[in-house]
Amino acid sequence: MTMKAARSARSLRAHPTFATTLWPWLRILAALIVIAAVVAQLGASIAKAEELGRDVGTVVANFLSFFTVLSNAMSAAVLCWAGVHSLIDKGEGAQPRSLSIALACVTTYMVVTGLVYNALLRNEALPQGSAPLVRGPLIVSPLTGERPWYPYPFLNPFTVGGWGWVLVYVAVTAAVVLAVGLLVVAWTRRDSALSKRDATVSER
């Protein structure tokens, strides 16, 4: 294992450009793609609302209630932050604690988005989004006075059998977020420990 770690350390020293130049730009590119997708979806939602004569403000508020949208927007912001920091720092210093926490958070959010979608929403018709929000925003159309709107079926007490079941779904989702977050933190610490060990081996 020691020899393997030493070879890994030598490899990193021999190829420093990926971590210091290419990887930051890939992060920024991914962030721009996510931003473009969110903006395009918002534009499509607004255009559809205008076509159907719906209140645009309400549609925008509803759009921003989807956890998919929020988690992707946060991921884009953090990826940009991480990419710019890497380009400025050039691998010479340690990653700020605040950035490490932000990366762990958005990683957790995106993993939960995929897990809950596949567990609860895979067979549901949801053209506006595909992941849960752990709260149901009570937004009523100012033009039509329509009943409260919920982003996902399992947050709607009228479709899941009452508020009791909504609370169950919220509790389960919260537990999943906590579990995934703990796994992400554990993995990050493990990776950090391995990097420090490789650095120690390379100095011998």
TrEMBL record:
Segments passing through the bilayer: 59-87, 99-120, 163-187
Matching InterPro entries: Pr6Pr-like (IPR049713)
UniProt KW keywords: Membrane, Transmembrane, Transmembrane helix
Keyword presence, Membrane: yes
This protein's name: Uncharacterized membrane protein YidH (DUF202 family)
Taxonomic lineage: Bacteria, Bacillati, Actinomycetota, Actinomycetes, Micrococcales
